[in-house]
Amino acid sequence: MGHFVTLATCALNQWALDFEGNLERIVSSIVQAKAQGASLRVGPELEITGYGCLDHFLEGDIYLHSWEMYAKLLQHEDCQDILLDVGMPVIHKNVRYNCRMISYSNRILFIRPKLWLANDGNYREMRYFTPWMRPRHVEKYALPRIITEITGQTEVDFGDAVLATQDCVVGAETCEELFTPDAPHIDMSLDGIEIFTNSSGSHHQLRKLDLRLNLITEATAKCGGIYLYANQRGCDGDRLYYDGCPLIVVNGNVVGQGSQFALTDVEVVTATVDLEDVRSYRSLMSHGLQSRTTASYHRVHANFALSKSGSLFDPTIVPTVARPIKYHSPEEEIALGPACWLWDYLRRSKSAGFFLPLSGGIDSCSTAVIVHSMCRMVVKACDEDDMAVIHDARRAVGLTAADDYIPTDPVEFASRIFHTSYMGTENSSFDTRKRATRLASEIGSYHVDLNMDTAVSAIRDIFVVVTGKKPLFRVHGGSDTENLALQNIQARLRMVLAYLFAQLLPWVRGRSGGLLVLGSANVDECLRGYLTKYDCSSADINPIGGISKTDLKRFIAYARDQFNMPILQSFLDATPTAELEPITETYVQSDEADMGMTYEELSIFGRLRKVDKCGPYSMFIKLYHEWTPRLTAEQIASKVKHFFFYYAINRHKMTVITPSYHAESYSPDDNRFDLRPFLIPNQRYSWAAKKIDEVVAVLNKN
Fold first, then answer.
1. By three-state DSSP, how is residue 182 classified?
2. Cα distance between residue 458 and residue 460, in whole Å
3. Model-level pTM?
């Protein structure tokens, strides 16, 4: 018979520093893998600690507790008779490594440290770990006594080794290594390794999944082999949402794929594959010739096989059929990813729900619809008898796990955990108030409609009494300085009121606890600095802070149809406005007019600045070729200089920006993703502006 093996990978919703909870989910995945007949189970990167421990990885306790949890895993009765690939940090010779622990039953076979670390964008692994950087080098690791007492082993191999069982060879590469130019699976395939495991902590970003999956499928399409990809899923306490999608690929064909977005904490994907298919696939002459010049890996030999023994044909063992890859549209990604992220924050913070200032504009509308999407996902998971979600939902509405409440309607569930408020002033329009009220009713939020003119006047009057000066709006004859200050009074009071209501509304409703305040500033406004420091952009978390205005409009159009919410069309039709200035017969405030650029242009500037790493001069050159003859060189130069002027003077706002769901490659988040000075001198861009003007002058002569 063929060498049929059943293999398992998984996505786990691990939580940084939740050692016991993480262990429970690891064991659950192993139990499910064994129940489906798997002989190998691979899990996510650093699954024992949770990937996002950040500087906690510098603490000795992390490594002690990791070994304590791993000892429990080795002894657990449900974790025997299966090959395990488990992720945890390890200190070797006083150096910290990000490692894979390869074990069978209660015996460690070897420890494989990560060769190349993720150290750009959102990742700073070299802040905590050292890359092994010694391909094929292996040395001995002295095991802690807590492990020796269980396994009887005093030392094991530590390094870039592979495992040779009785019927195949298994090798590991970890997350970032897949993305490197000379990925380990290339040389491993030439040295006869048939099965590759990849344990990742890879986050969601709009339109990114195809890059990851293309690398995995192309790896085995070119080299042959069986690729098991495991990933964390969920928010483990930071801005990132790890998007799961565990995958099993054979010779470039997907035979198993898990969900990218889901509320379930443990998802196991299995497939039955034929090892002989790999050997046949590698029968090309070029593969054989190149294998002769490839250095061999140290093989750790194990006295067991992954396939079942016996020489007779077994009709009950059926290989898994290849399937097409499942991708979500960007609109679906926005509906699902931030919704899962919000759910994790809600249940793990043990808050009483959410509070959102609902302005009647498309940004706060988008945040509200994402909460609605979350409620839909909760109801769906409860309908599928996901007991973890049911228990979390009961706690979220103020009940206990012993109660019999089960959410069956997203609107009813939202009425218990979602709170909104329209905070109007004399500058607010009837249309925005009406849209906010109708949306709140459709979604089911507990809605408060208020006017805060009294508070605005009180603040302004304090200034008048103290200074003897009365500031006026521009339309009433005031200066730009007065106009902006009066707008900011309204904006900042909304933040104060938001936190007041978030703290007291549960009390008003007879509940304990407080609400998480949601923000609704999009990534383009953050980039441009088109927001008031410490206004409603200041919140606890922001599900749309990494999403562009263009994508949000597409999402709302999608939600209008998918969620059967016709009210959303009115938000799409409305002109984006802050409504902080008086409305007159000849003037209505407009976001794009205020900013001096369109949202579409902002997205282009953002990608050129961050992704293409352009300064003003190189940005102008690129845009000249893209935008002419639609725009003149002078117009393009003016737009570029205008963008960088406001980007520079508003960069300080990013130091206090609300933690946002990371979804976009050009996010200006100053916390970790986009590190820039927040006091940028005018001279920084004056020289670039002169060079741009020189080019424009030359172009005009021609």
1. coil
2. 5
3. 0.94
